[in-house]
Amino acid sequence: RIPILMDCDPGHDDAIAIMLALAAEKLEVLGITTACGNQTIEKTTKNAQGICELLGKREIPIAQGRKAPLLTPVYTAGIAHGDSGLDGPQLPNPVVPLAEESAVEFLAEKLMKSEKPVVIVPTGPLTNIATLLLCYPHLKEKIDKIVLMGGSIVGGCSGRGASEFNIMVDPYAADIVYTSGVPIVMLGLDVTNDTTIQFEEKDDFRKIGKIGTFVAELVDFFGRGFEMIGWHGVPIHDACAVAYLIDPSLFTMKKMSVQIDLEGEYTMGSTVGDFYNVEGKEANVLVGLSSDRERFVKLLLEACQSYEKG
Ligand code: BDR
Ligand code: CA
């Protein structure tokens, strides 16, 4: 099994990513840390706890992350995820207390203790991960790779102007991560915007039972904005990072050099990829370009079914 640490800001698609990871036999989730992104850190943390409670996964330790991006102000996405960060489904109150350590200490400890190199899976702003790399540089060798949802090379924006939300919210953290030398796999909007659950597929989830219904309810709420702009489905961005680890053949990928724009008045936080290797720099990122959407949805349906079997 591949040991992974998830760093997330739930968030509807983060919730589906957690559901998928905790169902996957191939993955061993060592813990979940929370980031401030879709909502404030208190809200994303409570959501992470509620999700694990709903999934019946009380044994997964959860640690709370940093309160704000490294240098820029808190910027949340209530417009997409609601006031709670996870509006729509009813979550149970968390029973299990949080880990005592902060997210960064927790991540460091898990890396130190792991015999195998660990994959870090961030699906929110990269604040905790950048702090980890700055404070514990020697632990880089314990990280197998970072498989993240964030950025976009050619395929759109979900933040302000040209940038994707997770990178835009903490561009300085993203810069630290992208220049760290740790191998990076990036599932950005280029691939995630096309990796949707179509609206007519919601019923297939509902039919499965409790967890399938949870996914359908997440899609109901998160889907409102996409329906309004004429989309036929909802991109399940964050679950792409987890799906990549379960079955990389779902995605086509390309290695390239990617830098974070920290200067642009309108483009700060955009991920600038040298698609044709014009500059001849060494590639630092394996970038997702496209996915097999139908097989991705099948993977999600199977994951929901696995919870029914207990
Ligand atoms: C990313 O932004 C957040 O709103 C989602 O949870 C996802 O991680 C997509 O741009
Ligand atoms: Ca997220």
Would you mind describing this structure in some detail?
This protein has 310 residues and is of the alpha/beta class. The chain is built from twelve helices and twelve strands. Beta-D-ribofuranose (BDR) is lined by residues 11, 13-14, 38, 77, 80, 123-124, 149, 158, 164-166, 237-238.
| Major sheet strand order | 3-2-1-4-5-6-12-9
Shape by Cα distribution: globular
Question: Radius of gyration, Cα only, in angstroms?
Answer: 18 Å
Low-confidence stretches: none
* Helical content (DSSP H or I, runs of 4+): 25-40%
Chain-averaged pLDDT: 96
GO biological process, one term: purine nucleoside catabolic process
InterPro entries: I/U_nuclsd_hydro_CS (IPR015910), Inosine/uridine_hydrolase_dom (IPR001910), IUNH (IPR023186), Ribo_hydro-like (IPR036452)
Domain Inosine/uridine-preferring nucleoside hydrolase: 4-297
Keywords: Glycosidase, Hydrolase
